[in-house]
Amino acid sequence: MVKLKLAVYWAASCGGCDVAVLDVHEKILDIAAVADIVLWPVATDHKYSDVEKMAPGSIDVCLFNGAVRNSENEHMARMLREKSRVLVAFGSCAVSGGIPALANFKEREDILNRVYQETPSTVNPEGVKPVPESAVPEGTLHLPEFFGFVHSLDQVVEVDYYMPGCPPTAERIWEVVQAIVSGNLPPRGATVGALEKSLCDQCPREKHDKKIKRFYRTHEIIPDPDRCLLEQGLLCLGPVTRGGCGAQCISANMPCRGCYGPLPGVIEQGAKYISSIGAIIDARTQEEVEEILAGIVDPAGTFYRFGMATALLKGANR
Amino acid sequence: MSRRITIDPVTRLEGHGKIEIFLDENGAVANVYFQIPELRGFEKFCEGRPVEELPRIVSRICGV
Predict the structure, then answer these.
(1) What DSSP element (H or E) covers B56?
(2) Tens of pLDDT along A180-189?
(3) pLDDT truncated to tens, each residue of chain B (64 aa)?
(4) CA–CA distance, A131 with B43 (Å, rounded to integer)
């Protein structure tokens, strides 16, 4: 049997998706038995120049994690698209921007100033900031251009499959790997490694009528571990988030932040959640509504925690 | 004639790294530049987020 050629790449990411692949533990040997790794910076020593030399379509599957934050990320996205028959947006950052896309609430220059000038631990009297080209005595050094907006992978290149999660769980990854190896993949454009129903459908907590009189921040109450967190006034994105994560946050008595992305047919996870909240607030007057909503301290950063690249709400820069 | 060796990317670590090595006429290392071609800006985009949410945000600085 001809072995598959597999690439795993990270753009603007944390490496958690790569480690999630390794979290399949000894099954990684089964993956190695059916696939040759041709690029995987966290685990193997292939260089970008090796990928450049590959023929178009010579990589069978590329799991691309990370958002597109700078020109190197974009260049690699285009190159891996050309070289790969199947390109998977792997993890929340590639699917919808993920945590790095929270930067879309900020201006590019403000980010650079904060990081390279203003942080208390920074000493930079000459105000040096990264620039695409720097002249040094020996020649010119190059750095990627830092974009003003964080993009999802599919805003830059065509994507074949979407696998959400921050990170995708090892169980789901193994299922998807098996589907790839057996050629048993759904139609292109599908979301894989996630359920068609919401996290609430998986959540073991008792659920009753939701009537919210007050929202609490997570440190303000110790929630009942057996009751729906939203009913207890904690903002939980379970109702608008795909299941498939194994309810890990919920099991730790922490409300969902939506990393598995919106449900099928929903474009706007955040707007959907605002609509859900509208239905469960227990208020009779406008004043009561405003008082209850005042308990939500960071609605944009909470409802769009993992989705600011693809949200219709475009943040500071668009 | 000086020569340039580029190691891109530096592998088997968390994050992105790039090394440029410049050799002199005799093939000895004249200078080396280590570059980090990545920035996400947690320092800025954590501003305005509720403090109790930060453990679940900054844990994405490095997931390795």
Answers:
(1) helix B54-58
(2) 989 899 999 9
(3) 579 999 999 999 888 999 999 999 999 999 999 999 999 999 999 999 999 999 999 999 999 8
(4) 19
Can you tell me whether residue A227 is helix, strand or coil?
Answer: strand
Distance CA A270, CA A257 (A): 11
Structure tokens that stand for A170 in this block: 């090892």
Report the Cα B51 to chain-centroid distance in Å: 27
Q: Where are the alpha helices (DSSP H) in chain A?
A: 16-22, 27-34, 48-52, 71-83, 92-96, 108-113, 170-182, 199-202, 248-251, 269-280, 286-293, 299-303
Q: Inform me whether the C-beta atom of residue B31 falls under 8 Å from chain A C-beta atoms.
A: yes
Beta bridge partners of B19: B7, B34
Cis peptide before B9 (omega within 30 of 0): yes
Q: Residue A72: CB partners within 8 Å, gap ≥ 6?
A: A11, A144, B16, B37, B38
What is the ipTM score, two decimals?
0.95
Chain B residues with CB-CB distance to A98 below 8 A = 60
Domain ranges of chain A: 1-193, 195-318
Count up the domains in chain B and report the number: 1
Contact A119 B43 (CB under 8 A): yes
Q: Could you tell me the CA-to-CA distances from B34 to A7, A143, A159 in Å, in that order?
A: 25, 11, 33
Q: State whether residue B39 sits within 8 Å of chain A by CB.
A: yes
**DSSP letter (8 states) at residue B53:** G
Choose among A12, A96, A94, A65: nearest CA to A304.
A96
Domain span including residue B43:
3-61
A186 secondary structure, DSSP code: -
CA nearest A245: which of A170, A186, A153? A170
The domain defined by A1-193 carries CATH number 3.20.20.370:
no
